[in-house]
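stuck on this one:
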Amino acid sequence: MLKQIKELQRQFEISAIVLEHSDVYSLEDLAEKFKVSRATILRDLNSLRSLGASIHSRKRRLNAHFVLKDLNKLLSIYCSLYSPFEIRNLKLIYEKFRKKTLSVFINILKAIREKKEIQVKYIIEYPENTVCKILSPLYLIPANKNLYLIAYDMNDIKYYRLETLKDIILLKTKQSKAVPILSDLNKFNWGIYSGGTEEIVKLKFDPNLAGYIDEKFWMENQEVNYTDDGIILKLKVKISNEFISWIMGWGDKVKVISPIKLRNEIINRSKKIIGLYISK
């Protein structure tokens, strides 16, 4: 395993060097730089190509090109080598699954790695109202202090909190559906939740938030403009409860410009909150 990690690290470093310095390095240069053989560099380049890197030789010098989705995949693999998959609330997870805790993770991750299906009981109403499902796992990701399994349920991709699953059994049956890139799945999501309709949203922030709102990466499609009295953030996003809660968390530092239905939702929720504190 350690050898494989070292190989991956070298391959990522090679791709970075060639991408940044096209038509500079030869195979021999890289072999000397990394203290390996020319044949090893050739194998590294083939491995990188299998991950989507377009690396070619021109006049014995290497150059590289990545489309964004392949660069995303490469960076995700690289970051996983250095960013531990920290499981929050493990005590609570163990209290639920007890001696099956390790088996739960092994079955899910093995199903993801080998593209197999799992059988689970999904809790639809606490404490014990469950349905049996056959899922095709795609990702297990941490978000909002929880762990979520992203999986095909028939032909639909759904998100399941780990604690809503029980009796997880790894099946022998293979799943043949395409595995979408995680960033594509969440392209218009605000956070982990996939609900809500996609809308073009315009928000006007207090000018004193300059340097935070305008320089932060909120959504890939975001646009930022400046007015005399504020910062306009425009983005396409699914209007979910999570997104609405985020807006309301800014209090009087933000105003919804559009769409109207989002403005009205903020107004209605604000009135209900005020009503909780005003005696009738």
User: Anything to note?
Assistant: The longest helix spans residues 2-20. The domain at 90-179 is CATH 2.30.30 (SH3 type barrels.). Residues 201 and 259 are 6 Å apart (CA to CA). The radius of gyration is 24 Å.
